[in-house]
Amino acid sequence: MAEPSNGFLKSFTCSSSPSEIVAGVTRSLVVECLLSNHNVTALPFVMSLTLSHSNSTGDSAYTHIATLNGFDSHISGDAQTSLEAQTHGAINTTGDSFLRVTWAYPIANRAGDYRCDAIGISESGKPARLSTTSRVTLASPESEKERIVEKLRNQSILIETLETTLNRTSSENSHAIHDLEKEIQSLKAAVQQQGNRLHQLTPMSLPVLKSMLFTPSPLYNGRRYYLSQAKFFFDSKTAKSNCEYFGGYMAEIDSAEEFGFVKSYFLASMPSRFVYISGTDEAQEKVWVHTHSKTPVRYLNWGSNEPSHGREENCVGYDARRVLVDIPCNYYAETSTYICEIPE
């Protein structure tokens, strides 16, 4: 069968998204064969599109995955009958033709080389074939975490910049304020989504992930305290969830001695405007209880004129004076950090 010249391959592509996967963690892998606009290709008439796979890069032995028949639009192959794969495709006499296979949470052997073949009739009326490939590599969970953490950091910095702009925007410019608020909310949702991605990573890699997100204290009475790194935006709900994910809870400071220990390691130079710890009076105003143990907060070293008891200020944290203040549970105006307490 004749092979068209490479000049035609620019209109026939094999794409993989993403091009790098983490086994069992990446949400989906999409591999697509796309033949764009038959009129400018060597195949004005397409009979089939086929996708094949080789586990080892550079291996000439490919395993058939799926074939789309141009005569009846039927898709055949292992991917069509697999519970973990979804197939879609269409062959059009004008416009684009495609064959797409999607795997949910792809396993390690989905990495490798993918080859797309388009078989049809050339402009001269002879059988012809176009072939092109793409590659999917296997990443370690650690490298995936590093990317997510970096993305979280960049998104958090952008949120901080936007909120600074919002605070400086004239109240008369209501449309600009509304647009900024929408963009900030969208970014916060993206931050939450990235946080959820971190929670999908394997338990065996928790120490690596913990070292990326927190600064630990020495051991104290059978437990350690972990200060979240600055330049991340977390509300109290997300902070509580993150502490629990690592086997702990928001720090429950119940004595002057315990406060002195935490202060010496984390509050000597304040890492952020506010540092969240455990404590809320959301259920009953002026009655402060821990969010994890549900016991009364026994040590409340309030700052002057604190707590202000605003109905919107139902969480607690330390400010630049290293004293306790009541603050909103979803305080986003500036970068905040929090402290987890994790038994060992």
Number of strands: 17
Topology as H/E string?
A: EEEEEEHEEEEHHHEEHEHEEEE
Helix content: 25-40%
Shape: elongated
Terminus-to-terminus distance: 67 Å
- Share in β-strands: 25-35%
Mean pLDDT: 79
Oligomeric status of the shown chains?
single chain
Radius of gyration: 28 Å
The CATH class of the largest domain, by name, is Alpha Beta
Q: Can you count the helices?
A: 6
List unreliable stretches of 5+ residues: 1-10
Q: Biggest β-sheet: count, sense, barrel?
A: 7 strands, mixed
**Into how many domains do the coordinates divide?**
2
> Can you name the CATH architecture of the largest domain?
Roll
Structural class: alpha+beta
Here the CATH topology of the largest domain equals Mannose-Binding Protein A, Chain A
* CATH homologous superfamily annotation of the largest domain: Mannose-Binding Protein A, subunit A
What are its keywords?
single chain; 344 residues; alpha+beta; Immunoglobulin-like; Mannose-Binding Protein A, Chain A; 2 domains; 7-stranded mixed β-sheet; 6-stranded mixed β-sheet; elongated; disordered N terminus; CLec_Tetranectin-domain; signal; growth factor activity
What does this structure look like?
Pfam families: Lectin_C. One of its GO terms (molecular function) is carbohydrate binding. Residues 220-330 form the C-type lectin domain. InterPro entries: C-type_lectin-like, C-type_lectin-like/link_sf, CLec_Tetranectin-domain, CTDL_fold. One of its GO terms (cellular component) is extracellular space. The structure is a single chain. The protein has 344 residues and is α+β, with helices and mostly antiparallel strands. It has two domains: 12-139, Immunoglobulin-like (Sandwich), CATH 2.60.40.10; 208-343, Mannose-Binding Protein A, Chain A (Roll), CATH 3.10.100. 25% of the residues lie in helices and 31% in strands. Helix 2 packs parallel to helix 4 (206-213). Strands 11, 12, 13, 14, 15, 16 and 17 form a seven-stranded mixed β-sheet that branches. Strands 2-10-9-4-5-6 form a six-stranded mixed β-sheet. Strands 1-3-8-7 form a four-stranded antiparallel β-sheet. The radius of gyration is 28 Å and the shape is elongated. It has six helices and 17 strands. It has helices spanning 78-81, 141-168, 174-198, 206-213, 236-245, 256-267; strands at 12-17, 20-21, 28-35, 45-54, 63-69, 75-76, 85-90, 97-104, 112-121, 127-138, 214-216, 223-228, 249-250, 274-280, 315-318, 324-327, 336-343.
